[in-house]
Amino acid sequence: MTVSQRQGGGVQKAPQGGLAEVLDLILDKGLVIDAFVKVSLVGIEILTIDARIVVASVDTYLRFAEATNRLDLHAKGGKDLGEFMGGMTENVTQGGAKGKTKGVLDAGKEKWDELRDERRASRKQES
Amino acid sequence: MSEAPEQDSGNERIGSYVYGILRSGQRIPDGLEGIDTGSESGESGLGLVSAGPLAAVVSDVAVDRPLGTRQHLLAHERVLNAIAVETAVLPMRFGGVLTDDDAVREELLEPHRDYFARALEDMADLVQFSLRGDYDQSVILTRIVEENPSIRDLRERISGMDEDSSYYDRVKLGEAVSQAMDAIRAADADATLDALGRYAVATVVKEVSGETGAVHVAFLVRRDHRTDFERAVDDLGDEWSGRVELRLFGPTACFDFLPEYDVPDQDGE
Do A85 and B48 touch (CB under 8 A)? Predict the structure, then answer.
């Protein structure tokens, strides 16, 4: 992944984010084969989704309270707060499947016995 | 792609993993790696399966192994993004596998040809960007405390109390801070749309990630407006410098802007 940093804006730019950003797109969005054809999906380990958290919880409130209490309103800086929160936001996405669920990711319960014996090597790169 | 040799391991079961759909006659960028199937050939095996005006980007995948590793997930999007830079591609959601290339042709592409062709036409000159931002925590909290007398009072009351007796007040304080942050988020989402919306064909405001998430907006941008759009993002980054750290991802396939599709009724579930 290439990350370019423009001097002025300081906006990080990259073709693709980390796992959290990618999951948001490719698990919540995109066309679903199962909506088009009743063929099959292999078993998918989407345990990673359990890492999603609900933002508004008592734990969150307590962390906000602690961070707020530690604020030094009369001094500048406070980088220690960043380090306090630093680990919390990494690789976490929120909210669950908010997108329109156009089909179900059925985990591999279908029809691999119908797999044909032959696979034709008919793919071609066109030009 | 060269002709695939016969599978050595006789009963390794292979399916066709589908990344996305594009117009036929396009090329997959050279050197692109697909998801690692764990097959012994070690090739990425990315190829195109064509049917009329459409082609699906596929690779072999062993069906007796679970999908979903970090490598699989990142590769799925990487393949789509690399293609999206050059030409329109309809992204599949992660995890779609058909029994073989014939099934891709006969069960996916041909029966839904009109929808795919129309969607590709709609998306022909468009790419997606995702803008995410995070608040600098001490900056945002300082602002919240300064702007809200009730939060300030609560904070001062708690400071003289021990942990147990202040529990409910701390929850109350955190909740008030969280609500104040939500209000700032809503205003910042509006400001983002004001600043950037004119460079986009469509926008979707999405939920932010993490407790200090500030903005998360997806933009559908015309390829020839990309430079203007990115410049405007930089300007917004300047304006918010020190307060919100912005990250721009893209161009990607138009995940958040796929045309609606009416799922056909299929009996015989």
Answer: no
- The residue range of the domain holding A70 is 54-93
Contact B81, A1 (CB under 8 A): no
Q: Do the beta carbons of residue B123 and residue B254 sit within 8 Å?
A: yes
Q: Is B269 in a helix, a strand, or coil?
A: coil
Among the partner residues B98, B101, B248, nearest to A13 by beta-carbon distance:
B248
pTM above 0.80, yes or no: no
Q: Which of B47, B94, B146 sits opposite A123 (nearest CB)?
A: B47
Above pLDDT 70, what percent of chain B? Answer: 89
Task: Give, in order, the Cα–Cα distances in Å from B30 to each of A15, A125, B34, B43, B102.
Answer: 17, 11, 12, 13, 24
Q: Where do we find the tokens 């906006």?
A: A11
Query: Across all residues in chain B, what is the average pLDDT?
Result: 88
Q: What does the pLDDT read at residue B35?
A: 87
Residue entry with tokens 């700032």: B184
Q: Quick one: B233 and B138 in the same domain?
A: yes
Do B107 and B148 share a structural domain?
no
Neighbours of A111 (CB within 10 A): 11
Higher-pLDDT residue of B162 and A53 is B162
Q: State the residue for tokens 């919390």.
A: A88
Residue A39 has a pLDDT of 35
Segments in B70-225 forming alpha helices (H): 70-86, 101-103, 113-122, 137-147, 149-159, 167-196
Lowest mean pLDDT, pick from A82-91, B194-203, B247-256: A82-91
ipTM confidence score: 0.76
Contacts of B133 (CB under 8 A, 6+ apart): B188, B213, B214, B215, B216, B240, B244, B245, B246, B247
Which of B81, B97, B124 delimits the end of a domain? B124
- Let me know if residue B92 belongs to a domain: yes
Boundary (domain end) residue, out of B92, B124, B156: B124
Helix (H) or strand (E) holding B231: helix B226-239
Mean pLDDT for the stretch of residues B181-199: 97
Tell me if B226 is assigned to some domain.
yes
Is A41 close to B96, i.e. CB distance below 8 A?
A: yes
Let me know if residue A98 belongs to a domain. Answer: no
Question: Is A33 contained in some domain?
Answer: no
How close is the nearest chain A Cα to the Cα of B104, in Å?
10
CA distance B244 to B238: 10
Counted domains in chain B: 2
- Whether A65 is in a domain gets the answer yes
